[in-house]
Amino acid sequence: MTHLTLDKVSVHYDGQPAPAVERVSLDIGKSDSGRGDFVVLVGRSGCGKTSLLNVAAGLVEPAGGLATVDGRPITGPGSDRAVVFQNDALFPWLTARENVAFALRLRGVPADKRARRADELLSLVKLGDAGDKRIWELSGGMRQRVGLARALAAEPEFLLLDEPLGALDALTRERMQTTLLDLWAAAQVGVLMVTHGIEEALVLATRIVVLAPGPGHVVRTFETHFGRRYAAGEPIRAIKADPAFAAARAELTDAIFEGEAA
Amino acid sequence: MSVSAYSERPAAKAGENNGFSVPWSRPRPKRAVVSARLVSAITILVLLAAWTAAASLQLVSPVFLPSPAAVWAKFVVVARDGFVDATLLQHTLASLWRVFAALIAAILVGVPVGLAIGISRIGRGVFDPLLEFLRPIPPLAYLPLIIIWFGIGEPSKILVIAIAMLAPVALSTAAGVRGVSRERVDAARSLGATRAQVIRHVILPSALPSILTGLRIALGAGWSTLVAAELVAATRGLGFMIQSAAQFLVTDVVVMGILVIAIIAFALEFVIRRVERVLVPWAGRE
């Protein structure tokens, strides 16, 4: 079992009067057999979701508390924790295949070998024939899938997703949700994801952590199972139509807006 | 595997819709473009006509203003027989060699300096004031000093041009580096890139469009420094040719030289824009 753990982490940005996040603890586990947690952070603007993700990524140093992978403190970014951003952050001077192969190129993997691996990953995200495409020839959803494949090429233990579907239109987003679930099952990673989408959180997560601002803290944690039902073969529409889904959505919405002045 | 289940359309496919007019597409404002070009063409023709008229009516002495026909005739003669011991091609190649040697020197120094300014605070502190000091000085002002230091040989001429090119190259590189998207750098780091790999694989390619713009500006600056660079102890070069002709009051060669310099500058600009399109096809499409 591998764990990405934030232990009472606080984030305080230079020049800000108040901390952005105060004493938040999280744990994302990944069993050696492959199945990992899918932890989703939700909450209103300013609750520190992205700050926490950046601490896990090693891009932001916590002002207090400790971020660790298997007990080893996180001192910077690393390919065991690959990040996918809202704006794909792909490299337009490379083809889709070369983007996916980027992490392998950094490691000095020979060109033919990394091209083969990149094509496998592109097939996994259902872009098998787009390897030679330039980034600007791809739609937003396709780009985001290239971004996911690129992150998976680093063979991370954990995927950190910062609103990866935030810039997509509603229909594409819905399709990408199932893509994410497929990847999560296939790639054997633990996932930490930030989102604004309540339904998205319910569909994807094994655990939802609700944060509230002022400074960012955890107000509730839900264990959910809708993603597992999809993995077991139930169609996503049927899951979303389930009254239990509607009830969970209402409960989660209440938790997010709890304590906010009406 | 099925792609059709995920059949999103590519956002913008190059060449799509070209030469194919859809009923709801709005007519392009073509007339404005054509008329601007037309006005430019008319302007040039009118100037040429006025020049021809002034020359043929002897309104101005040919010593001051030779006729277009005389300039053209001189072009043919100098191209074939040469002027001051070299043909027009030899003069042109001598000048082009100096400008390109200077360009390479400016790239070798300017790009690393621009990187240093863009990446590190110390780099910026060291190089920014130096560049700001160099940038506004006209080449004729530092030419004497360079001759005192480095003599009257070829290196001095190349150096004068290179100095004029350095600031545009370095400052454009720095601007490109500062414009690199934070997320791209972070994404690369989280994929395991070291600092050196981030510079090599993310920052440099990201800054490339800006660097190429800098080269274009630098070529313009260098080309316009040419005459100053060839002021002392040159035996070939377009600038040298013009100055020699001026000393003998061979005005038609002077005018011809000016036109050749202008045409070559225009051609260089055109070539480097082509190069930009090939090297950085993503510029402006992100």
TrEMBL record, chain A:
SMART domains attached to this UniProt entry: AAA
MF GO annotations: ATP binding; ATP hydrolysis activity
Domain of life from the UniProt record: Bacteria
Record key words, sorted: ATP-binding, Cell inner membrane, Cell membrane, Hydrolase, Membrane, Nucleotide-binding, Translocase, Transport
Keyword check for Cell membrane: yes
Keyword Transport in annotation: yes
Domain ABC transporter: 4-238
EC number, as in UniProt: 3.6.3.36
Family listed: Belongs to the ABC transporter superfamily.
Protein's name in the database: Taurine ABC transporter ATP-binding subunit
Gene source species: Mesorhizobium atlanticum
Automatic annotation (TrEMBL), chain B:
Highest taxon listed in the record's lineage: Bacteria
CDD domains attached to this UniProt entry: TM_PBP2 (cd06261)
UniProt subcellular location: Cell membrane
Keywords: Cell membrane, Membrane, Transmembrane, Transmembrane helix, Transport
InterPro entries according to UniProt: MetI-like, MetI-like_sf
Example of a GO biological process term: alkanesulfonate transmembrane transport
Transmembrane segments: 38-60, 99-121, 133-152, 158-181, 202-226, 246-268
Coiled-coil annotated spans: none
Entry GO terms, CC: plasma membrane
Membrane topology per record: Multi-pass membrane protein
Every ABC transmembrane type-1 domain range: 92-272
Main subcellular localisation: membrane
UniProt similarity note: Belongs to the binding-protein-dependent transport system permease family.
Name of protein: Taurine ABC transporter permease
Species whose genome carries this gene: Mesorhizobium atlanticum
Lineage: Bacteria, Pseudomonadati, Pseudomonadota, Alphaproteobacteria, Hyphomicrobiales
